[in-house]
Structure formats: C-alpha cells, structure tokens
Amino acid sequence: MKLAAFDFDGTILFDDGIPAHTIDAIHRWQAAGHLAVASTGKSLAAAKFGLTGYDLAFDYSVLFTGGVVTDKADTVLHSTYLDTKTVQDIIAHLKQIDGIGVYATRLTERDACFAYNVPGGSATNILRDSVQMTEEEIPVHTFIGIPI
Fold first, then answer.
1. How far apart are CA 2 and CA 79, in angstroms?
2. What is the pTM of this model?
3. Cα separation of 118 and 98, whole Å?
4. What is the pLDDT of residues 7-17, one digit of tens each?
C-alpha cells in the first residue's frame, strides 16, 4: 500500500473545478489499494465545500496545514486550536492591511470572514464559502487558523 497526498488550490482544484481526469486518476489510485489523502490549508468545512458535486472521497485529510487530521468519515483524529486572545490580536492587526482577505478557520463550521479587500475576487471556489463575522463574535467560537 502506498499513500499520495493531494493539495487543493491550483493543484487539483481550479477556478473551473476539479478536472475529470484528476478524479479518474485518484479513483484508479484508490482502486489499486492505495490511500488518497487530502492535504490542504483549508478547513474541513471548506474542503468539503470544494468537493461538493464531485464523486471524490479521500481516505484521510490533513487540513489546515496539519492543524486537523480526519479519516474518511470526517472523524477528527487530531486537532489544535488557537487561543482567543491570539485570534483577536491577529484579526485586529490584519484588518488594517489593504489588499487581503482576513479569515479565521473553524473546525467543522464554515470559515469566518472578517475583512475582504482583494481586488478581482476570490482565487478559488473554496474561499467563496464563508460567513461574515465581527471581532466581537470571536470569543464564542474556536479557531484552528487564520488564513490570509
């Protein structure tokens, strides 16, 4: 048995989706008895959103750059969280910078968007699935990361 890890943005997932030949190749890999692992900086919710409408299921997922690991059933095998003060400080600082989107990633819920100041729109379909949140709401949530 072998293992192959697949990044999302610009590797298997593009603005126009996931190419059929990529899905076929991953299916053949799995049919040969090998493991296919999603390896992305995205949250579980964002990764699932990016796979919506595709017949593609990964055996494991390493999400948010290792902050979360799940199995095929999305059972969380490992997770780490940022403390609330750190999230508040980072969001407050980043919101002052022009030209970036400021998100905070939660474990199973949609990513939170605190500011979006990027000319030209989102880079991928995944970034389009978020909820608007204010800094005052931070303490009632737990976050695994803050992508920019």
1. 24
2. 0.72
3. 8
4. 988 899 888 88
Q: In sequence order, what are the beta bridge partners of 70?
A: 61, 76
What is the token pair recorded at 105? 């990633």
Asked if 85 and 9 count as a contact pair (C-beta separation under 8 A), the reply is no
Reference 111, options 14, 10, 40; nearest CA is 40
What are the structure tokens assigned to 25, written together? 């190749």
Q: How far is CA 34 from CA 48, 60, 68, 89, in A?
A: 21, 12, 22, 43
* pLDDT value of residue 128: 64
> In the chain, what are the helix, strand and coil shares in percent, each to the nearest 5?
30, 30, 45
Bridge partners (DSSP) listed for residue 109 = none
Q: Please give the span between the terminal C-alpha atoms of the chain, in angstroms, as a whole number.
A: 36
Amino acid at position 111, single letter: D
| 86-136 confidence digits (pLDDT tens) | 999 999 999 998 888 888 988 878 889 998 877 766 554 445 678 999 999
Which segments of the chain does DSSP mark as H helices, in order?
A: 20-31, 44-51, 84-94
Residue 133 near residue 93, CB atoms below 8 Å: no
